[in-house]
UniProtKB/TrEMBL annotation:
Function of the molecule: Has both ATPase and helicase activities. Unwinds DNA duplexes with 3' to 5' polarity with respect to the bound strand and initiates unwinding most effectively when a single-stranded region is present. Involved in the post-incision events of nucleotide excision repair and methyl-directed mismatch repair.
InterPro entries documented for this protein: DExx_box_DNA_helicase_dom_sf, DNA_helicase_UvrD-like_C, DNA_helicase_UvrD/REP, P-loop_NTPase, UvrD-like_ATP-bd
Catalysis performed (reactions): ATP + H2O = ADP + phosphate + H(+); Couples ATP hydrolysis with the unwinding of duplex DNA by translocating in the 3'-5' direction
Gene Ontology terms describing biological process: recombinational repair; response to radiation
Gene Ontology MF: a single term: ATP binding
Enzyme nomenclature, EC number: 5.6.2.4
Keyword set, alphabetical order: ATP-binding, DNA-binding, Helicase, Hydrolase, Isomerase, Nucleotide-binding
Boundaries of every UvrD-like helicase ATP-binding domain copy: 10-290
Nucleotide-binding recorded as keyword: yes
GO cellular component: cytosol; DNA helicase complex
Domain called UvrD-like helicase C-terminal: residue spans: 291-564
Species annotation: Oceanicella actignis
Protein name: DNA 3'-5' helicase
Residues binding ATP, per UniProt: 31-38
Length: 721
């Protein structure tokens, strides 16, 4: 048994304990949201360490985000009393595979200092390849090819084992372009995100001795959010675990929301086949949410046909109903949420005051964020955007990073291309073409081609001089990296000597000052890292960003990014048919698409601990076009007895000649909900009003009738879903 001070076991329920203490052989924990899967997994790590079963470097633990990895590391440290040094193999699939690949890069035809490409670089590369094939880029966009290649990599297909019908994609040239692309990546000493996994998988498959080494070292495997692993990840896990079979996966089929990215729920079902005799553990007690939130989430997800089905219950009895409110448009929705957040932080909404940090806004589509960002900037409400267009994606940051990449590996051709003429140094299109031509003709890297061009007196004297100076500078920076110079000072030098910061300082555009600030921030961020390479790797991997600083902030993120997280208060705006569920996912994937959207609704609702607020707008500008919208069908599926309908203050008359609405805050149940929708209809004029009346039929849906029938019979705990 564990040493006497294993207090971390005491707080667990019996099923969780089983998940923690069943250390030998395969374990699958299959359970609903908030039942303590992640907590059990964390305790399992602690338990492995505490009982001496494994050393920190023998545990291979996969989380879905970098943030989750950091949190798990911290918690394990707290549980075992800070004795954890390292845990080098705790991270996302990508981070772990990047690490493995650095050790064996040469087996994939790369050097250990290979660059991890971002989407932008990838697209530029594909664009070049498509152009070289004389394919019409308008008909066959690079983005489409990128999507295909990504899909193939998610399935573990290399150019060598790509099925013929897949290779025939992209006008018959998909397979060839894929092979060309991989070849180019190799000459650039680069890997894209998908490669991290596929290369490692291929190495393990082709080099049994390498696989044997890692099987011996990584003796305990743990995977969180298992429902969202793709085939390549699954194959990798199976290879690593085949011998010792000490693998523990936790997941929830109802939270599988990355089907569009190649995740396969089937992996859950396959687990028991691949690991016969696996212990399957179900957790049914929810520790996160109030009964109202749980009832609403459970009822919504119950509308899905394809699910394993689970029981969920909670001991809690108190709590707020899920709040529902309709607005005129997205701006008003943002304004109202801003005010509501201020009220919640003051504690004037019938609840204890909530810290901004405990509040999240979860959107379906990232364009929705803009309204909130604008609004919050306006009222001075601190917020952070998680997973949206973010700091490291800004132009000036990407340019600076390209310089850093060159300093680390001067043969990074894409980085060189990017900064060759940034700031402008007289090396325009023509110079770039000359360099490219020499590179192609002589099979050189771009940087070497540029060197040749300078040595042989190509270009105009002025351009040659500028190019020569740039190359010298790159050599100098690289030398400094190799000599182990202080990387923060070096970064400053690079931004200085390249003329890049000055270029923005002298720029008169209104946003230039902000860019200089950002560059400063970038250098500051470097301080937390040991060297430039570590930082570059971090940025490449941490694109699901989280910038840290002291102030308590409201979080804005997509529903996808919210997986695994929890907040006391969650706002769920934009519940309109077409936006959520998204029209596109329904068009592309029919019922399966709709069911994945519904799982997303379930994920969103179950992030909330104390309060969930769902809202919709009658009018929404989507990509600049106004559309009038119907409340989401998921709203129809919410059980009225657990919902409180609010009436926005704006509806009581206003600039648009709004009609006064009967009812208001406190109106509960189906009648209240209908009132809110009717109230909204009151603000819609003329023909729109008629249209809405016609749509009222929608509220006579089977879901609605089912709900009303159920209203008569009060639901008893546990809520069975
Ligand atoms: P999700 O499916 O959303 O990822 P999960 O199953 O991983 O959820 P956790 O995040 O591990 O759930 O736990 C949800 C909440 O319940 C957390 O706040 C956690 O600390 C708490 N919790 C879990 N188990 C227990 C327990 N045995 N006693 C008290 N609180 C618990
Ligand atoms: Mg979890």
């Amino acid at each position: 048994g564990p040493p006497g001070d294993a207090a971390y076991l005491d707080g667990l329920n019996p099923e969780q304990r089983a998940a923690v203490e069943t250390l030998d052989g395969p374990v699958l924990v299959l359970a609903g949201a908030g039942t303590g899967k992640t907590r059990a997994l964390t305790c399992r790590v602690a338990h492995l360490l505490r009982t001496g079963r494994a050393r920190p470097n023998e545990i291979f633990a996969v989380t879905f985000t970098n943030k989750a990895a950091r949190e798990m590391k911290e918690r394990v440290g707290a549980l075992v009393g800070g004795a954890v040094e390292g845990m080098p193999w705790l991270g996302t699939f990508h981070a772990l595979c990047a690490k493995l690949l650095r050790r064996h890069a040469e087996l994939a035809g790369l050097k250990p200092n290979f660059t991890i490409l971002d989407t932008d670089d990838q697209l530029r590369l594909l664009k070049q390849l498509i152009a070289a094939e004389n394919i019409d880029e308008k008909r066959w966009p690079p983005r489409m090819l990128a999507g295909l290649i990504d899909r193939w990599k998610n399935r573990g297909w290399t150019p060598a084992n790509l099925p013929a019908d897949e290779a025939a994609a992209f006008g018959g040239k998909g397979g060839r372009l894929y092979a060309d692309y991989q070849e180019r990546l190799r000459t650039l000493n680069a890997a894209d995100f998908g490669d991290l996994l596929v290369h490692v998988l291929t190495i393990f498959q082709a080099h049994p001795e390498v696989l044997a080494t890692w099987r011996g070292r990584l003796r305990y495997i743990l995977v969180d959010e298992y429902q969202d692993t793709n085939v390549a990840q699954y194959l990798l896990l199976r290879l690593l675990a085949a011998e010792h079979r000490n693998i523990c996966c936790v997941g929830d089929d109802d939270q599988s929301i990355y089907g569009w990215r190649g995740a396969e729920v089937g992996n859950i079902l396959r687990f028991e086949q691949d690991f016969p005799g696996a212990a399957v553990i179900r957790l049914e007690r929810n520790y996160r949410s109030t009964p109202h939130i749980l009832a609403v989430a459970s009822e919504v997800i119950a509308a899905n046909e394809r699910r394993l089905g689970k029981t969920l219950w909670t001991d809690e009895t108190e709590g707020e109903k899920v709040r529902l409110i309709g607005h005129w448009d997205g701006e008003e929705e943002a304004r109202w949420i801003g005010e509501e957040i201020e009220a919640l932080t003051r504690g004037t909404r019938g609840m204890e005051p909530v810290s901004p940090e405990g509040i999240a806004i979860l959107v379906r589509a990232s364009f929705q964020m803009r309204a909130f960002e604008d609004r919050f900037l306006n009222i001075g409400l601190p917020y952070r955007v998680i997973g949206g267009p973010r700091f490291y994606e800004r132009l000036e940051i990407r340019d600076a990073m390209a310089y850093f990449r060159l300093a680390v590996s001067p043969d990074d051709g894409l980085a060189f291309e990017r900064v060759m003429n940034r700031p402008k140094r007289g090396l325009g299109e023509k110079a770039a073409q000359s360099v490219n031509l020499i590179a192609r003709e002589r099979g050189l890297t771009l940087v070497d081609a540029a060197r040749a061009l300078v040595a042989e007196g190509g270009l105009t004297a002025r351009a040659r001089g500028a190019l020569g100076r740039l190359l010298e500078a790159i050599d100098r920076w690289h030398e400094a990296v190799r000599a182990g110079a202080d990387h923060v000072a070096l970064a400053e030098t690079i931004l200085d000597e390249s003329g890049y910061v000055d270029h923005w300082r002298n720029d008169r555009a209104p946003d230039s000052a902000g860019r200089v600030e950002n560059l400063k921030e970038l250098v500051k961020a470097l301080e937390q890292f040991e060297n430039l390479q570590g930082f570059l790797e971090h940025v490449a991997l941490v694109m699901d960003n989280e910038q840290e600083d002291g102030a308590a902030k409201v979080s804005i993120m997509t529903l996808h990014a919210a997986k695994g997280l929890e907040f006391p208060v969650v706002f769920l705006p934009g519940w309109e048919d077409g936006l959520f569920p998204s029209q596109r996912s329904m068009d592309e994937n029919g019922l399966a698409g709709l069911e994945e959207e519904r799982r997303l609704a379930y994920v969103g609702l179950t992030r909330a601990r104390r309060l969930a607020v769902v809202s919709f707008a009658a009018n929404r500008a989507v990509f600049g076009r106004w559309q009038s919208a119907l409340p989401s069908r998921f709203i129809d599926e919410m059980p009225p007895e657990h919902v409180e309908v609010l009436t926005p203050p704006g509806l009581h008359g206003g600039p648009r000649g709004r009609a006064a609405v009967a009812g208001g805050r406190g109106a509960a149940g189906a009648d209240g909900r209908l009132r809110a929708i009717e109230g909204l209809a009151g603000v819609v004029r003329g023909s729109e009003l008629e249209e809405r009346a016609a749509r009222a039929g929608a509220y006579d849906s089977p879901g609605w009738r089912r709900m009303q029938a159920r209203r008569a019979a009060p639901s008893a705990a546990p809520v069975v879903i």
